[in-house]
Specification:
With 171 residues, the protein is mainly alpha-helical. The chain has 7 helices and no strands. The protein folds into 2 domains: 36 residues; 98 residues. Helix content is 57%, strand content 0%.
Length: 171
């Protein structure tokens, strides 16, 4: 009786075992390499945390380049026309990037720009974003010069809007 196709596929020949063995080794090595690359790049993390600790993943859109440009401005109120033009360019660069709403440093710069132009609506928008990000455990980069506390920003935003912000006045 001749073997059927099913018998040949099921057979346990040494060649077939060798092929499967090498396939498993290659797949395992590829998986280990992929996990190592992702861990090294910070995409995945394995660690231990206490139950009370929160994991906060910060999106960095406004990094060192934007912070350096912002810090070089003359940050007196009001800005001179050249500094205001440079600040407007920085804001344009920020808003052209994706995920800037998730970066508290970007929001602080946007708030400062809105304060300079006395745009109360934009001040409120940036301030509310900053409060939400702070509640998520995300904070402005401490290399950013001329930052304000949330209560100070509340007061200045309220002053610009000519009334109460409603809600959280001190935080």
């Amino acid at each position: 009786m001749e073997p059927t196709t099913d018998d040949v596929l099921i057979s346990n020949s040494p060649t077939r075992r060798r092929v499967w063995k090498w396939a498993a080794i290659i797949a395992g090595a590829a998986t280990i390499t992929a996990v190592a690359v992702l861990a090294a790049s910070g995409v995945i993390y394995a660690g231990v945390k206490a139950p009370a600790q929160r994991v906060a993943v910060q999106t960095v859109v406004c990094g060192d380049e934007i912070i350096d440009r912002y810090n070089q401005l003359s940050l007196s109120v009001p800005l001179n026309p050249a500094a205001q033009q440079n600040l407007s360019r920085i804001v344009k660069d920020i808003t052209a990037k994706g995920d800037y709403a998730k970066d508290p440093t970007c929001q602080a710069i946007l708030w400062w720009n809105a304060m300079q132009s006395r745009d109360a609506a934009e001040m409120k928008k940036a301030l509310n974003s900053l409060k939400n990000l702070r509640n998520d455990g995300l904070y402005v980069d401490n290399n950013l010069m001329n930052t304000f506390s949330i209560p100070s920003m509340n007061s200045l935003t309220e002053e610009a809007s000519g009334g109460s912000l409603g809600g959280d006045e001190t935080n």
